[in-house]
Amino acid sequence: MSAVLNTPQASRWVVPAPRKQLIVGMGDMLTSNDASASLVTYSLGSCVGVAIYDPIAKVGGLLHAMLPEASINPERAAKRPFMFVDTGLPAMFHAVYALGGLKHRLIVKLVGGAEFLDEKKIFRIGQRNVAATKAMLERNGVSLAASETGGHESRTVRLDLSNGNFTLDIPGKSPYLL
Amino acid sequence: MKAEELIAKTPNLPVPSRSATQLLQLLAGDDRDNEAVIAILKRDGVLSTKVLALCNSASFELAAPVSSISQAIMYMGYEEVHRLVMAVAFGGALGSSLPGYFIDDGALWRHSLLAAMLAQTVVRTVSSVPTDPSVAYTAGLIHDIGKLVISHALDAEKQHLVRDLVERGNRSLLEAEHEVIGADHAEVGACLLRKWNLPEVLVEAVANHHRPPVSPRLALSSVIHVADMIAHEGGASPGWGSYALRTDESVVEAMGLTADHVEVLIITAYDAMLQVDEALAMTH
Question: What is the CATH number of the domain that holds B8?
Fold first, then answer.
């Protein structure tokens, strides 16, 4: 086997080792300063994904929040602050500061908040998640570097901690950078 | 007619076992007779073995192993046994990938399990539709079964047409598939269920889960409609254009559903999703 791999023809087919992936579950958040890893969260529908990255310290965080406000279930918010935008967002920023990230260097991106086709307000969770995120960032003087919200797709996102590249992956489409 | 044609052209469709069909017929009837349920399970060797294996698995923490179906039902509860029987009947087919919809392996099964659990919750907490929770569970589980047929019919060219209608024509995915193929997954699903002699309450739920009737009264399809929407918002929204759906305003109103209800249901969905993923991890 090794003899085959050593031939020049075979070496052209050697595939680089896959990058380490740290998976952020629904209603959860992860921060890391491991530049060899990516933070990934799957299938953001009406949920929002917020990625923050400090390119100097190479520290990042990724939040997958499901609902805009913790007041709907404060008990749950105490146990799982990352389910909600208004408790999850500040907690993520503080966790990134703790790893050496600085507020003025952070690149912030927002994805998600998909909407059904109708006008009915009851199911407008996506829109409310996006509005809550934007309002909170604005109140705290944080500007968005990029965002892709709304639409009818569920999106998988990936934050590469070596360079801050933020990739979107939608079923049936090629992945692209935001 | 079109639906039957499409079904005939689709290979490898699941056919639920005789015992699964009998259980569903019994359940949809007025009197659920425990003895009859036990008799059906006992006649089916594969099912009996699975029920006993699950009952004796670590999750039930029994002091001594159980060796009879009637004991197993007593310990596990009827609903748990029913969930297992339905998983055996439909899990294989609904777990496969559906290239026509860009649905990955296992993603529709995850969505179906979540919708099933939410259907039970809606019946218990919100809805005024009187339905046995196990019937609601089953309807939630199989509401998208027609997608097996439609996915097969959606070749590359038709996929392109569907996408165009959704992206530029403001159509829902369901409307687009009807325009392109001549039938949608709801009517095809209902047609399949009739073919299998499943009870009419399930046929109605699957046929109307995107357009549930409000008058003269709400039907099981409204419960499934809401459960389906919440399953999408609760994190199990498989495939391309999975939010290109219309919620039915009149049903939401008739059920008295508020924005707070929806948020509470999404939190319920989150908890259910954890259970679903745990159960799926055990089967791998």
Answer: 1.10.3210.10
